[in-house]
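Collaborator request, handled under Task 6.
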Amino acid sequence: MAYRLESAGVLLASIVEAPNGDVRVLARKLRWIDGDAYLSRGELSLSIKSEGYVPALAEAEKMQAVALWVHTHPGAGASPRASAHDEKVDRQIADLFRLRSGHHFYGAAIFSQGQTDLTFTGYLTASDGNTIRLERLWLVGEGFHLARSADSGSPELSPIFDRNIRAFGHAIQETLHELNIGIVGCGGTGSAVAEQLVRLGVRHLMLIDPDVLSATNVTRVYGSTPDDVGKAKVTVLAAHLRRIAFGVDCEEVQSTITLEPSARRLMSCDVVFGCTDDNAGRLVLSRMPTYLLTPVIDCGVLLTSADDGTLTGIDGRITTLVPEQACLVCRDRIDLARAASELLTPEERIRRENEGYAPALGRTEPAVVAFTTMVGASAVGEFLERLVGYGPKPRPNEILLRLHEREISTNASAPRQRHYCHPHSGKIGLGATEPFLEQTWPS
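Structure tokens returned to the collaborator:
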């Protein structure tokens, strides 16, 4: 049967480098070799006509993508490490792959089914000989899965996670330990998300928020006290998370992701939680799953009240954005007029508001810790479900909480035709474009 034979293909990918030096290979297309292109094919070796892979190299050149030679070592427990023959083939085809694809990188990867999970080895080599080893495979779609290189060790886990492991297993706990998670917005919802992630075992976080803590924030922001008023929210939250657990790595970014340098820093994250209440920030987050293949779990909380202060509506939303599914714009979850107004300078905004060309901003919305926490917990729960897979299939990609009516509903939305998030747009996995995310940035 074919699955017991070695199989090969060409992976077309984009390469992005985050400001912190992390290098990521974004898989865009995998072109398996047609059966009639094999000269020989067995359980331990294969040989292929050049016509079997040259068309994929031409496609890579057209897409401005790097071409990686990939093949399998089949059989349960087989090793994905390169044989002497594999290394010889790499030397023979590396220059051809670079020449035909027009890219200075050549890459190769071998996949096997390990004792308990998919495993692999892989690397990228530049034309100058500089080599980068591929350490992790982060699979994102309806579910999330992390696979490690056969050359990478597993993290040592503390016994404090015994109850977690009893719930969803050792492998998920290891994944939580290794993931890099961004949290955009460190107020009531973002701080609730951050605290729960750290208590679950997440140890690498990037916290982004431009604001300082106000007196009214103390009623909702986890870890804050009246003595923290006037300090940066990211600093207050990071200090709190480090008190919860030793070894928590928090990168503090006191900025807004509507500024390009700050948005670029999110390229080092595996998952991003959107806990911001501004529409312009959501426009940035909405593009990340398409261009960078980074899942975004976007949260929203809306309280409405009558003039006498009586609550008339308590609504929450958790939208999970992954490649090839509807973005926030397609879902009509962003007020584009308000987003445009939020990006204006204060002087220009006031002028346009007075002239009736921009919506008025600056209204202080009601907020209550019980409801921001509930939405934050639901977002973390959705993240866990994508890792563990305990819920029904197919998964919804949005949860709506109508707390005043004690109702929860779910839905799934498809991308609009010809929009950037549509699978036929050619934008999936495009990487660090210029301009970044193919959008206009304020100076």
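The cover message to the collaborator said: "The radius of gyration is 24 Å. The CA atoms of residues 2 and 293 lie 30 Å apart. Please let us know whether this matches your experimental observations."
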